[in-house]
Amino acid sequence: MINDMLSYFADAANWAGDTGIPARLGEHLWYSFLAVVAALIIAFPLGVFIGHTGVGKVFLVSASNVLRALPSLGIMTLLVLLMGIGLLPPLAALVLIAIPPILAGVYAGVANVDPEVVDAARAIGMKDSRIILQVELPLALPLILGGLRGAILQVIATATIAAYVNLGGLGRYIFDGLAVYDYGQVLVGAVLVTGLALVLDGLLAVLVKVFSPARLAIAR
Amino acid sequence: MITFESVSKTFPDGTKAVTDLDLEIPTGSFTVLVGPSGCGKTTSMRMINRMVAPTAGRVLIDGQDIAEIRAVTLRLGIGYVLQNAGLFPHRTVLDNVATVQRLLGLSKSQARAKAHEALERVGLDAALANRYPAQLSGGQQQRVGVARALAADPPILLMDEPFSAVDPIVREELQAEVRHLQAEIKKTIVMVTHDIDEALGLGDKIAVMAPGGQLQQYDTPLQILTRPANSFVNSLVAKDRGFRTLSFATLKDVDATSLGSPGSDGLIPLGVGAPGWLLELDMALRTATWRGPDGEETGAAVLHRGDSVRSALDAVLASPCSLVLLMDENDVPRSYVGLEDLAPYLRHGVRSRA
Prior knowledge:
The structure holds two protein chains of two kinds. Chain A has helices at 2-10, 21-53, 57-69, 72-83, 88-111, 115-123, 128-158, 171-179, 183-211, 214-217.
């Protein structure tokens, strides 16, 4: 099986064309990117709003729990049945799993900013938009990036299901391999997804470090 | 002039934070709101920059109802110093101080230039300008807080227990600094504290408040000390009242004895003031030393005419020969004061001489 995988990797033909490894990798990243961006558009403003005003905390917790409990594959299958084959059903499923970590990160980051610092900002004459942009978001950045990192990893791992409904991505190798009992190919898919997740996680970890300098770690 | 017109603040649960407060704070004065926790002093102060809205009554600045001024505009014209400085942890000291100027629309470089001036004014080393607040001591952070409040040169300065979080030595230093600053810049300062000593030492006017936000007395420190309006105020100032009163008389009119001329050994005999004692003055090193009959040597305290009778009495009590030196206008010790010279202040109380 390992040998099958290695020879698959060694075959130059598998690295070229529309179904080659680079193309599949590109598709996988593209789905993931779309899903995370869509989740950001939904979850980021919502998290900032709830964190800044404190309105809707109960909603946030219950919605996150519900979303976390949803099975991605089930959601996608249901949406396919409702809407037919297309990019939208898998994308929707991915967006739904990306929202909770982003929402939690943004909300926690903004809500946990020292209330005295926010009070000071308001008292010296900042309006709410300035408080959010100049005080809360910069201070929340480490937690926001942490949430984003979690969301990206989950989406990368879950984007394999897009292949289940005849789309591309690294899941292709897994579902195609399973269909013809070619476990070498299944392993190719698994290794690629794992590798991609690890590389991205490393990059994001560096990013989080860069934006959470020591000055934020020291207690005031 | 800041005017409170029958201002009340009742919280939704029915708690009265401030009850029917009438107060006139003159422009350029240093007014201290003092009282135990829960007496509504901070709530009252925060009504001046609309951080708290009164449930009844009005607050006016120079005759204008502040409820009619946009909150952000109002606050940009009022400096605010918080208990724990409330600095932005993600901004350098310089950018913290430049914040208000930036909000007022100044360019980054102009705002930073002003911020440098403000840091200098509060006695902060320019080398600290590029540090982050977490890298400073509590006292330094508090100075940055004052600098941030002063940077835009607002006519009004609000201070919420600004010195309560720093250690006693730094607190005294900061208090002296603020007193000095106020003499220079003449803002309308409103400060909140629970420390009656701090209030007596800093304020031109003191408003004593009791739980429930009831104003007990609004008067000068000396009046508060010597003529407390009721038993509540009395209980606040009863301790050490006599000594505290001496803080309000200066040595301006005290009868000092001029120093004689030095003998052949360069030492000045003190004569009847302290028989057997000699004074050694080193003008180059700017030191003064008492030399006793048995050869003991003690550094001599030196005061100015502007210092208080309280500090003079303290120095006299601490001196081995019961004397304290007085400087002339040129900072040269020319005379000394003993217990007898202070006696009139002690015997008749400060009221007769102040």
